[in-house]
Amino acid sequence: MMMNVGFNLGSRDIKTLNAKLGRIYSNPITSPKNTALIGSTVTLINCLDSSVLTFRLTDSSTGHDGDKDDVCIGSPFGLALLGTKPGSVVKLGLSNEEGHAVVLKVSS
Question: What is the pLDDT of residues 48-69, one digit of tens each?
Answer without folding.
Answer: 889 999 999 998 755 555 567 8
